[in-house]
Amino acid sequence: MNNFSEAHYFMLPTQGNVYSLAILNLCSGINKFIIASLKKKIIVFEYSETTDGALKPNVKEISCSYIPSGAEIIAVDAFNKSDTYDDFQIGLAIAKVNTDGGQETYLNIYSEQDLDSNNKLNIDNIAQNCSMVELSFVPYHLTHTLIWRRLECSVNKEIVWLLSGSDNKIHLFVEDRQSHSYMETDITEQLPEFTVLPSVGLWIDIRYTHNFTRRVSVVGCECGTLQMSLVNVETNSIIFNQFSILDGPITQVKLFSLTPKDIHPPNVFKSLGVKERDCNPDPLKNDLHLIVCSALVPTAVYMNIQEQGFMERQILDESDLYDVNLCACVADINFDGFHEILLGTFGKKILIYTWNGDKWMLSGQRNTANSVHSVHYVDVTNDGVNELLIQTPSGVHILQHCPGRVHNVFLSRLKDDDAGREISAEIDIAEAFLVDDVSLEESQECSPDIAEPPIHLQAGDAVDMMAVGELSPEASVVNEPLLDTIEVQKPLSDLDVIHKPLSDMDDYPCEEAFEQTEN
After folding, report:
1. Where are the domains of the chain?
2. Residue in 283, 379, 371 with CA at minimum distance from that of residue 331
3. In this predicted model, what pLDDT tens digit does every residue of 370-428 receive, in sequence order?
4. Are 88 and 126 in contact (CB under 8 A)?
5. What H or E segment, with its residue span, contains residue 419?
């Protein structure tokens, strides 16, 4: 992960959990994300462009209606109902413990009304329009999926809410369009594979295949039961169910393919003749695989589950050495056309696994100062390149690819396209007359091929302020005044770093700073 640098970091007022972050995918192609801390604080993060063309991170707290005083936000999720304009629905699962020992639980669903085709996302308006559903159970994982509802004379496609609960059930909530409210409906009619669970469903994942004629549904339970179902969508009948029992709760399940989606060039390149294409060399692109994270045993990957079920299992090396594996992310972070697996652990470590054609190999790791609740790979800067979002109990890190690496990949893919060769040639000519304004220090930090010689400083030495002054204050997480000189303290030994409590590291402006290691 030495091709990443930290673009931004913001702190949370109180910690969240593994269900606390949701992505907002706008129709314009811009992505934002919403994160909820336990104590009612709901934050929307986005990047905006300044007048001089720079990106400015914006963190905005929104005030959602109908959240009882003293309540805690257990889970958050969001989706866009429309393909042509922004019609978002945001769901919050809420729990409140009363003074008499009783508890209240709710599902709040926020949306806009009276929309038109020119509608744009207005998060403040959404936050004030709430449909509140009282629950009789403690909520856990809140997610959504696509279903085909069979009505009297038609079959309608719509997105519905799924919520797992302490009553060992998965609850289905659908919209009543006439009353603009939500109601719970029998899940057996729409998703029969979720009718019976042995314990609390901690994580749900659903994927449609074969041109939406098959549905693969997976749920991981608190008791360690892993359930996978293959469903015929046209008849809504279960083709087969398969179960496996692991030692300990299943913290997350994730369905994925070995390769990313097809490349969709921007409109400016489409007008020049650059066509959409598949960047994927994998001939088995339709295969579906499954990651299963567990609290007590190593994370496992089940390959080609539609044909092999749970038979072809691979254990991820060293995934049980850093406490509980809380989350998994699938992303092509090295631009080789194959997905990598990133595991976030409670033991303050991110593990990276690469597919070598036969097996998943541990290829790198990155230390964090806190446990990792979730990892997402999404474009939040709106530059066409995804960033890594790393959620921890104290805040969210946004890691950005090295621009030089992205530039090289961009040109190489243009040259592989007939229309793109002419564009790439013009870019090469233009670059010959441009002066690279990226500092040597920054380029060396992002490049894995350059080994920067270490600077040996003794305790008490002073660092010239000229070097410090070259740092942009906008790149700093905490904008604090810089001293004229910086005194270099006696270096810590490895034992000091391992056993030094976090409370003794108050001098660092960001206690979430990363320390990177590579295998």
Report:
1. 456-517
2. 379
3. 999 999 999 999 888 899 999 999 999 999 998 888 888 878 777 765 555 555 555 55
4. yes
5. helix 418-431
